[in-house]
Amino acid sequence: MTHHIILWKLKEELSDAQKAEVKQGIKEGLEGLAGRIPGLLSIKVHTGGLPSGNVDLMLDSVFESPEALKGYSVHPEHVAVADARVRPFTSGRYCMDFEI
Question: Partners of 3 in the beta sheet?
Answer without folding.
Answer: 62, 98
